[in-house]
Each structure stands twice: as C-alpha cells, then as structure tokens.
Amino acid sequence: MDNKLNENDEISLKELLAKIKEWINYLISQKKIIVLAGIIGAVLGLTYSFIKKPVYTATLTFALEDEKGGGGLGGALGLASSFGLDLGGSGGGIFSSSNLTELFKSRSMVEKTLLSPVNVDGKIISLAEMYIQNNEWRKKWDDKPKYSSIQFLPNANRKVFTRDQDSIMGLMYLNLSKSGLSVAQKDKKISIINIDVSSTNELFSKYFCEALAKEVGQFYIETKSKKARMNMAILERQVDSVRGELNGAITGVAVANDNTFNLNPALNVRRTPSARRQVDVQANTAILTELVKQSELAKVTLRKEIPLIQVIDRPILPLPKERFGKAKGIIMGGFLGGFLTVLFLILRKIISLLK
C-alpha cells in the first residue's frame, strides 16, 4: 500500500515538473513579444517621467504651548467663585496635541485657508483661485457655463456660497486632505507638530502651509481664551457699575451733611440719611476693592489662557521637490510592461487549453 502511494506521489511530482518546464518553454518561445512589451513599457515610463510634474513639499514646524493646572492662581480662582464669578481656569483638553492635528485637517480650517488672499504676479487672489489655476480646471470648465463664471474672491463670505461653489470647495478639500496635507506630532512626549503641504506648485505649497498655520492659530487663540474674555468683560462691567454707585453714595453723603449743618444735636432723626449713605459708601468701597482685585486676576488669567503656537521652522524657498526620475520610469515601465505581457500570455494559454 505504501509503495503505491510513493509511486503516485512520484508520478505527480514528475507531471508537475513537466508542466512547469512546458510553461517555461512556452514563455521562452514568446520572448520576442515579452522583450518588445518591456521596451514599450520602458519608453512609456521614460515619457511619464518627462510629463510628470515635480511635487514640492512645504514644511512648517511649531511648538504648542499647553499650560496645565491653576498654579498659584488656584486660591484666587476659588475666592472669585465664592462671589459667583468664573475667571476661566483652564481651556480643557479640547485642544490637546492630538486634537489640534485633526483641527488642522478639518474642512472648516482648510476652506478658510483657501479663501486667504495671496499676491501672485502682482495680483491679489485667493488660494482657491491659485489652486484652480495650478490644476487648469477652468480649461475643463469651458464646456460648462455654470462653472466658468464662478469666482472665489479673497476673504469671501463662505456662508453665501452657491451649491456649485460648495461642490468645488469640497473637491479641493478632498484633494488636499488625501494627498496634499499631512499633520503629525513628532513624539507624543514632545508638543512639536509638523505641517507638510505638497503640490505641483512651489508657491502654493508655501503660501497654503503658512496661511493654514495662521488660520488655525487665530481660531485656537480665540476659542481657548473665549471664556476668560467673557468673564473679564463681565467683571469690567460690574466694576464700572459699582464705581458709579460708589460715586453716587459719596455725593449723597455730602448732600446729607450739608442738610444737617448746624443741626440741633437733639434732632438725630435728621442725621439718618447721612448715616445710610455712609453705609452705602463703605459697602460699595469694599465691593469695588474686591471686584478690582478680581478684574486684575481676570486679566492675568486671560494672559495665561491666550495660548501660543510658536513657529520654529517656516518653509523657505526653494522647497524640497520630489521628481519621478528617468531611471525609475524606465525600470518600472519595463518591468510592468513585461509582467503584464507574461500574465496576458499565461491567461491566453489557459483559456486555449480549457476550450
């Protein structure tokens, strides 16, 4: 029984080797076609290397200031809360490094950046118009009248855009977010973030990278310090209000004193308004003193809550560029041409055997 199995295995192995040899001989017989296809592929690869535009990458590196904890202001903030006041404290974890990297890639930030003004050949246009020019979209819109008249003016109001404008902006965002924009944190322990913008236009890469950092920086500062600004504004209004009441009470004391000048000491009732006004002066003085303290603390808190995106390295011309090399085009084109031809010949042979 074992001898029969060994013989069957040996026969199967011999048949397999014979089949492999047969396929090799078949491919060798088609070597002229394969070589010709490889040459054609190499020529196409070389042609592609001439046609393919180089990709320029602009890199901006910044450090994120992220203060945590209340520090020495903890007691002062607690005292303020006892008066029903909230001086801000902390902006929370919404703008941690990981969240901030996603903010850079958000559609809102990218579209606001695309509407930023830039100077191109002495003319002020938006980055969106620059992107359209770089990709020669307007030539493709010649047969589409509804697109040919669309313009993206610098600092245009995004809320009044038409459906077609929304569609074009959405397409630009998708293209940039998929292949043109990369935001990454170098190390989780270090708050240093890199922004990479890649495009076939050197100036667009540089302008967009810098404008995006500026746009996100402004949004970051305004949002994180918004609560502290609101609280400071409330305190300033309360200080003005109490100061007005104090001035009125001081004037009232003076008026009451004038009315009781040379008053008979036995007529104490006539001195009541003056005493009441003096109590008002003392109370308002105490309140104003405390509010002024809280107002100053609020200013300190606001300065603390205004974060900083400190730019370390900006993109400097000329930018690094990545070109599809001629040698790479020849090798890849020749390999793909030969491989696809071999695959085609094998499939054709299999189909002919099955018939």
TrEMBL record:
Pfam families: Wzz. It is a multi-pass membrane protein. One of its GO terms (cellular component) is plasma membrane. It comes from the Bacteria. Residues 22-113 form the Polysaccharide chain length determinant N-terminal domain. GO terms for molecular function: protein tyrosine kinase activity. Keywords: Cell membrane, Membrane, Transmembrane, Transmembrane helix. The keyword Lipid metabolism does not apply. The chain crosses the membrane at residues 33-51, 329-347. It is found in: Cell membrane. This is Lipopolysaccharide biosynthesis protein. The lineage of its organism: Bacteria, Pseudomonadati, Bacteroidota, Flavobacteriia, Flavobacteriales.
